[in-house]
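Students often ask what a holo structure prediction actually looks like on paper. The answer is less mysterious than it sounds. You provide the chain, you provide the ligand, and the output is a string of discrete structure tokens encoding the 3D arrangement of the protein together with NDP.
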Amino acid sequence: MTCIDTVVVDGKSLAQDIRSEIAAEVAGLVAGGHRAPCLAVVLVGDDPASASYIKGKRRASGRAGMESVERTLPGNASQADVLATVRELNEDDAIDGILVQLPLPDAVDPNAIALAIDPAKDVDGLHPVNSGLLMANRPGLYACTPMGILEVLDRHGVKLEGKRAVVVGRSAIVGKPVSLLLLHRNATVTVCHSRTQDLAGVCREADVLVAATGRARMVGADWVKPGAAVIDVGVSVIDGKLVGDVDLEAVEGIASLVTPPRGGIGPMTITMLLRNTVAAYRARKGV
Ligand code: NDP
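The corresponding structure tokens follow.
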């Protein structure tokens, strides 16, 4: 029986380090006579989870010395209303990044909203121009969670070149973009989904395993190759407790590294949003 000293990633502390770097960068811009970067968040409806996510994002941007504004629309807002808000933010030169909080009400098509955001302000990286730039391995604004995952791997010295990476999940916001980021770093990438056969067997081949399905504790001990780095993106709530796609206790002692469901990838996602906002500001302003 393998027993490895598994590193349980402290995403909160890592995120804090990076946020301090971003705050120093913003302070430098302001000291140089520039205004602070500004993030606009759009909330449609009164979903408490979305409201709490938005509060966290605004608080994080304030702590990094950045400005933020919020546009709140009622839950019965039409697609035209949301599009009008996005266009107004696109045209406002004081706004550098635009984030429309998902999920949106049924009457609003998230693809139409993503398409309406100015790609230069698309800090969620969901506009086809940005996903196209990612596919072409050219600079752009990439989705935040995938970038946070790469940051965790890099800052823990996980080697990617020539390694087998398996990504479970193929969404536009996590699975596909993280697969491309891993591919661009010369990993050999397999993307799995709900129709994959022998999923456990495929996962067992991974040196780097990314689970992004929302299926609670799906990844157990027999899915993980000894010494693999395991990134848990999934979030489920079971009996009021936050649970990931990975059975953390089961993989400890097998994986070399694992991210926990709380304080793992979540704080890194918000941090990458801040970084994207600064990058969007710099690119637009040429500073
Ligand atoms: P989606 O629901 O869009 O995608 C889920 C993916 O998982 C799909 O590709 C689906 O396959 C696949 N899948 C579902 N069930 C299985 C299964 N039994 N076996 C194999 N594959 C399966 O989710 P997201 O990508 O948006 O998010 C994934 C999870 O990550 C969620 O729990 C979400 O809450 C969390 N999340 C966490 C973030 C964070 O910051 N911590 C940020 C973003 C997301 P198929 O395509 O075939 O349907």
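Residues 143-266 form a domain with the Rossmann fold fold (CATH 3.40.50.720).
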